[in-house]
């Protein structure tokens, strides 16, 4: 007999009745029923119920053990009586009558329980992640992650992609988020950077003649944390040669549809080809470039109804040509109580309020201050444009759309959630396309890249030389699912003169580009194919499939929101000897 087990704790069935078996696992739960001691024994594969009688040799040994102690047992498989069968457990038709027990690892008092999975403070969960990972939900999430990654690999290889590895120690570059820097011992005063993404390397692979690349790539970005973002994360990094934007879409849509169909527990998934929405249209209709398409609320510009109209505040705002009025429909939201709640929410978001029109049962028509001032005809026109009628409401945001669009998008989201308009049991995909190549930097007021600096501008060199930079669009695209950006991608700028001109517009001289991206520029000068790609985030994909709202719930050993590993006490102090070897002297911030 094997030293530890003949079967796993999820393997036994009614057909095994009468067998002598050996199991090993953790004591998940103990129950004393009239002198009989019942134990749920757990391992990676499942649970098996054990039973011990008071006269058994090891009864007292097991009785004193705490939950989560590790034991090995020998015993006989017996069928449960019909009234004690557990139909919710794969092993629920049998139990094991224990004849011998060996304690393999005794558990001390637990800092958090495993059975039952009650809510516990995150710092305790992360500090004791080894216990947290034993809990059923988190354990299942990590298994799901492994299966999703395996399925992705299989699907990519079946499409003719090959997996290649790219460096972890690389050079710092002035794009994207802050780099994590690694000091060099051999080259005093110089630093490596951990890759924010394998961007340049995957493009260099295309230049090197590798046609279809993918990698489950670790990435590192020193940026502020939130529920769906981590300092370190994994992405499905993809690049393809001799492709248009449509070719990239055609390769990735079946993959995403297939993964969500395979692991989405039967929830409907958007059929491909996925819808495509230009960036500026997404901002105007949804107030975000990450719209949740399960929410049916679509905003509209309704400025003309208020220009020179009876509602003086909006009319005055529209005297500035850059300003506009946006309407946010609220189907079946036609009550003063709901409108007042939305107004209070807006004030909590730092806004003066949220104008509204609602269907007033008392008045038998449209009510609210805006309707009163705008008049019956004007009110009917604006609500008619929004497709609203009896029982409905609408909210209005006024000013410069560049300033208020994020708030308008948040209001749209709030309306959809409050009125329960969002179908939670589906996965809705959409491409956001035609991103602006450039934007104004809010801090400097200068033109800067808006997305990916290596993207091909639409219209290429002619567009860069003849258009206002803020009007230049790029072959850039995002996949969004249920309001989460799952990936960004682009057709790349593979022509050196075009790349230098694109960076020049963003304020980077040729000497800077040569210094920072010389390896890639040099490669492009030796013959580069047209190429493009994208990089869906593994953590966010698994988070959505697991029904979680924080990626820490699908990462085995995550950092907390302060970027700390509470198990390993990282980041931590290092010795003076280590600093000296790296030619580093620390300068701590002065606390006032």
Helix/strand/pairing class, anyone? Answer: alpha+beta
Q: State the distance separating the first and last CA atoms.
A: 68 Å
User: Helical residue percent?
Assistant: 25-40%
The low-confidence runs, each spanning 5 or more residues with pLDDT under 50, are none
Please report the number of helical segments: 17
Question: Main sheet: which strands, in order across?
Answer: 6-9-10-22-21-20-17-11
Q: Largest sheet, if any?
A: 8 strands, mixed
Average pLDDT reading: 94
Share in β-strands: 15-25%
Principal-axis shape? globular
CA radius of gyration is: 30 Å
Count of strand segments: 22
Q: Can you describe what's shown?
A:
By secondary structure, the chain is of the alpha+beta class. 30% of the residues lie in helices and 23% in strands. The protein is built from 17 helices and 22 strands. It has helices at 59-64, 122-127, 129-132, 136-158, 199-207, 245-263, 279-286, 312-317, 336-348, 369-374, 376-385, 401-418, 460-466, 496-505, 510-524, 538-546, 576-581; strands at residues 20-33, 36-43, 46-52, 70-79, 94-105, 162-163, 181-183, 191-193, 212-220, 232-241, 276-278, 300-301, 324-330, 355-360, 365-367, 393-399, 429-433, 438-440, 447-449, 476-481, 484-491, 531-534. The protein has an 8-stranded mixed beta sheet, with helices on both faces. Strands 1-2-3-5-4 form a 5-stranded mixed barrel. β20 (476-481) and β21 form a beta hairpin. The longest helix has 23 residues, at 136-158. It is globular, with a radius of gyration of 30 Å.
